[in-house]
């Protein structure tokens, strides 16, 4: 009997050690499908490779999301060499020439970083992706509307764009831009801003500015699809969560493309996907709530 107990203890000891090790493990992220099923990076990548457009929604100050964006860019480039581009909300459409010149090695980095108007966190969060694109000769597409036009809409609605010159209109989605304020994302914005402003007009204008950004990003993504390129697009999660925003405008423009989405969320527990985050995207990157931020 004593020998049997000793044998059983020896058998269960490795299992107990494994459980304890897992409890002490501190993963930087976990991946889930929209249904909440755990998935590994390799299986996610195999699915992403089939898509023409991957919208990677980030929290702008999340280092894990930025690192994964770089890894996905590398792997999709390897899968689609010669027919792959990276799009970025972080660059406005009127700096495309500067980006092209920098990627071609025609202008020094100092000029690029000054004239391309990169976000304040460019050096820590987006520069690695741009440097990768430069080294591998991958096009980087500036997809966001120039902020001056977004500000015009936030102040006076989409009607304010009517007097913009033809040259200026090339930097945002073709007018008229239809805004469906019944979409949950926009509806939530209306509720949020409507409660803190005088009347609803200001809130409506802010939603229209958001919609202009979504429509413009979809417009430039669509151009890449029509040119036969696959695209990884980097954007704030709110622009693609719940299959709205950019994805909705791609459908309205009748861009026939297989689109997959990724979003990034914070949770205390990484063992399961919380219900509120299910169905937000095709794949959900769950990062610990305690993760350090880049700003």
From TrEMBL:
Alphabetical list of InterPro entries matching this protein: Cofac_haem-bd_dom
Coiled coil: none
Presence of the UniProt keyword Chaperone in the record: no
The Haem-binding uptake Tiki superfamily ChaN domain, residue ranges: 44-250
Presence of keyword Zinc: no
UniProt KW keywords: Lipoprotein, Signal
Signal peptide as annotated in the record: 1-21
Record-linked Pfam families: Cofac_haem_bdg (PF04187)
Record protein name field: ChaN family lipoprotein
């Amino acid at each position: 009997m004593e020998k049997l107990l000793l044998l059983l203890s020896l058998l269960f000891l490795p299992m107990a050690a494994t459980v304890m090790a897992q409890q002490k493990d501190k993963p930087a992220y976990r991946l889930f499908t929209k249904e909440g099923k755990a998935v590994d990076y390799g299986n996610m990548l195999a699915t992403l490779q089939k898509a023409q457009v991957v919208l990677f929604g980030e929290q702008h100050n999340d280092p894990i999301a930025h690192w994964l964006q770089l890894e996905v860019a590398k792997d999709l480039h390897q899968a689609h060499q010669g027919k792959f581009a990276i799009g970025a909300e972080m660059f406005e459409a009127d700096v495309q020439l500067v980006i092209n010149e920098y990627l071609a090695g025609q202008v020094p980095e100092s000029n690029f970083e000054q004239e391309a108007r990169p976000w304040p966190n460019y050096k820590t969060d987006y520069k690695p992706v741009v440097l990768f694109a430069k080294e591998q000769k991958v096009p980087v597409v500036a997809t966001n509307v120039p902020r001056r036009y977004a500000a015009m809409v936030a102040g006076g609605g989409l009607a304010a764009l009517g007097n913009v010159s033809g040259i200026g209109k090339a930097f945002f989605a073709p007018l008229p831009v239809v805004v469906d304020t019944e979409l949950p994302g926009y509806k939530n914005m209306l509720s949020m801003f409507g409660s803190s402003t005088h009347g609803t007009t200001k809130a409506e204008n802010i939603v229209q500015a958001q919609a202009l950004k979504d429509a413009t990003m979809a417009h430039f993504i669509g151009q890449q699809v029509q040119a036969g390129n696959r695209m990884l697009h980097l954007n704030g999660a709110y622009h693609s969560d719940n299959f709205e925003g950019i994805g909705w405008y791609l459908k309205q423009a009748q861009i026939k493309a297989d689109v997959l989405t990724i979003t990034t969320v914070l949770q205390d527990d990484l063992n399961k996907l919380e219900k509120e985050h299910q169905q937000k995207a095709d794949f959900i990157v769950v990062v610990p709530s305690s993760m350090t931020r880049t700003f």
